[in-house]
Amino acid sequence: MSARVTEVERHGIAPIPPEEQTSRPRDLFRMAFGGANTFATIILGTLPIAYGLSFRDAASATALGVVVGGLVLAPMALFGPRTRTNNAVSSGAHFGVVGRCVGSFLSLLTAITFFAISVWVSGDAVAGAAQRLFGFDGGAVLRGGAYGVIAIATLVVCLYGYRFMLLVNRIAVVLGTAIMLLGVVAYGGTFDPGYAGTGTYALGTFWPTFILAALTALANPISFGAFLGDWSRYIPARHRKRSLLAAPLLAQVATLLPFGFGIATATLVADPADYITGLTAMSPLWYAIPLIVVALIGGLSTGTTSLYGTGLDFSSIFPRLSRVRATLLIGTLSVVFIFVGNFVLDMVSSINAFATLIVLCTSPWMVIMMIGFVQRRGFYDVADLQVFNEGRRGGRYWFTRGVNWRAMAAWIPATTLGLLCANTPMIAGPWHDVAGGVDISLLVTLVTAAVAYPVLVKLFPEPPEVFAPAPTPIRDAVPAEA
């Protein structure tokens, strides 16, 4: 029997029982789109304008990043239905059951970043809209209170688990979309599609800044790579690959709505770097309440999709922590980061740096996972994936002390070379000018992983037991002798 929405989810990262795999690919679409149809994505959409691009160029760079990122992300939906667990645990088939901790690290990096973005921008939007409605400036106290309310509400939803999150995201998809479309009425009269930009590019010239904007947008779909299995594990493996691939891809294409809202409205505010304050100040009074609603619902949606997966995963690394306890621990640490980052450090710069790390660390990990999926023909031993989580040793995916050095020997250089070639305001590697200032870090990290892993597997074949058993030949029946 399916669990009720108000029932606290009892499953950790152990395989979901087949009878409880009752979700469909469209539920995966709702989770992925609902988690991105929020102010967090709107903020990412404002950054190309803050970098100095025109509206047309900002929209083009964003569309490029979203589509490329969606294509890279889509295959990550294939693992959960087969392994019935999350993607970090599934990665044990390729990185080793101990090496799968790489996926857990990526999950933590992404969760802290996007949970912080969601609470930060949603809290600022609530505080700004309240000031617009009631005419008073609550300052740091009001903002801090808004952060606390959204963070606590997000934690509560995560503690209830997948079914409750699915309900929240169903609401977020409909309500968030309606309110953003209503923004056409609120801002349509003042928006100018011919906005030419500031003329001062973040990286000095056009093409390096254009690529920076595309990579900023690409960070959004890539950030879901470690989390798709959290939700796709509830989908039965009988569903067609085409449907599983289409759900996350279409969800990312749909995020062009919040991205577009951010790009368009950023051209209207006096200082795109102080977007939330500028937006609430210039919004019509009647639109202040819808802004509060989309901020609250959106903050819950983005925060839960990122925080839930990390709590789930860390409960497997530290067996003494249940999913609920691990979620509380990670959530508390993230809240501390939010307050320190906003009131002590430069939050925007911190998020930019984290987004760069997410793209350059997660994308080669995803490439290795996808190549491994093809090489194994989608075969996974569900029980042996759980060896590390259950405190055991051995099994198909033990490799060398629990680590598949071939995958690690591809991922580490790919990530390192990407960071060496990165060219962003916060992270600029020593080779950042190798292509005339154009950031080629993503291309370098993807190509390195895509070439190194197959070559290493060819030179040093993986153990035969990680592949599907050869089918038993069916012999023609021979009539029995009389």
From TrEMBL:
The entry's keywords: Membrane, Transmembrane, Transmembrane helix, Transport
Gene Ontology molecular functions: transmembrane transporter activity
Region spans: Disordered: 1-22
Biased composition (Basic and acidic residues): 1-12
Primary subcellular site in the record, as a coarse category: membrane
Cellular localization per UniProt: Membrane
One Pfam family here: Transp_cyt_pur
Protein topology in the membrane: Multi-pass membrane protein
Keyword Transmembrane (UniProt): yes
Gene Ontology CC: plasma membrane
Transmembrane segments: 31-53, 59-80, 101-121, 141-160, 167-187, 207-228, 249-270, 285-305, 326-345, 351-374, 408-428, 434-456
InterPro entries: Pur-cyt_permease (IPR001248), Pur-cyt_permease_Fcy2/21/22 (IPR026030)
Domain of life: Bacteria
Family named by the database record: Belongs to the purine-cytosine permease (2.A.39) family.
Protein name: Purine-cytosine permease
Gene source species: Amycolatopsis australiensis
